[in-house]
Write a structure and sequence with these properties.
This protein has about 160 residues and is mainly alpha-helical. The protein has one domain. The chain contains 5 helices and no strands. The longest helix has about 35 residues. The model has no long low-confidence stretch (mean pLDDT about 95). This is Copper resistance protein D domain-containing protein. Keywords: Membrane, Transmembrane, Transmembrane helix. It comes from Kyrpidia tusciae (strain DSM 2912 / NBRC 15312 / T2).
């Protein structure tokens, strides 16, 4: 029975990770480049609506990945006490936990707040609509730079998961 519960929890963990990581990457590498082809005003509307809509589900999915990972490592895994964190598995598991928490917090606070602040900045968008899009391009570059920390977190988590086997 425990094996079946563990298998089901692994499936939930993987699905939540796909939603979280895949969603963030799809917006950054799929939606964002496509939006450059929309008129400036429409692009702003879509970005604001999209970010407001996905913020909660992506944060929930990332939090779900963390919670299922904790259960898979402890209650349904090899970590039974503090001393187990000194094992190779324990160190990698703890590293993954820290990376995941930092990544969720970074994306849901720093990245989201910066993005929404830029999407609300009327002067950037009206200046771009009037033909000078350099400040808007710089601001969008800041979003890409800040959000790249999430991508780095995802890459580090994948390395940890591969090492955990």
């Amino acid at each position: 029975m425990v094996a079946e519960i563990r298998t089901a929890l692994v499936a939930v963990h993987i699905v939540l990770a796909i939603v979280w990581v895949g969603g963030v990457l799809f917006i950054g590498w799929g939606v964002y480049p496509a939006m450059k082809h929309l008129p400036v005003g429409r692009r702003r509307e879509v970005f604001r609506a999209l970010m407001a809509w996905v913020h909660g589900p992506f944060t929930a999915a990332g939090t779900g990945v963390i919670l299922t990972g904790v259960l898979l490592g402890t209650a349904l895994g090899p970590i039974r006490g503090w001393s187990d964190l000194g094992t190779a598995y324990g160190r990698i598991w703890l590293t993954a936990l820290i990376i995941a928490v930092v990544t969720v917090v970074w994306g849901s606070t720093v990245g989201y707040r910066l993005s929404m602040g830029i999407f609300r900045d009327d002067s950037l968008w009206s200046q771009a609509e009037q033909g000078d899009d350099r400040p808007l391009k710089r601001a969008m570059g800041r979003i890409a730079a800040v959000e790249s920390a999430e991508v780095a977190g995802f890459a580090a988590l994948i390395v940890c998961m591969v090492l955990l086997g």
